[in-house]
Amino acid sequence: MCQPMSSNLQYVRYASKKASATPRNRIGRTKRKHRGIKAHDGTFVHKGDILATQFGLRFYPGENVVMDDKWTLKAAYDGIVVISTETLNPYPDSPLYLPVQKGAVLQKKFFHIIPTPLHGKFKLVSEV
Q: Structurally, how many domains does the chain consist of?
């Protein structure tokens, strides 16, 4: 008679590796942030391009330049970058206000954007 074949295979489940935590005090150096000037004097930039990344205020925003919450300077318009060194004139609530009022002269780098001129080729809607 035919009997169904029984399987002699047994399934064995092995212990998997237990998850381990990362060490708290890693030995070695962390990666640098590569902060600094990203667009140099005389280069053409588009709106929203990063001009400089910084920790604190090393560089100040000038004409047509905006600064975000992490002190990154970005172009507000398309144009050419101009970097200048100017005498700082801080607001009264700034910590640099008192030293300047006492006679200290602070020279800081400012980023400016000279926007590209618009072309003068416009048509009236009634002529189109």
A: 1
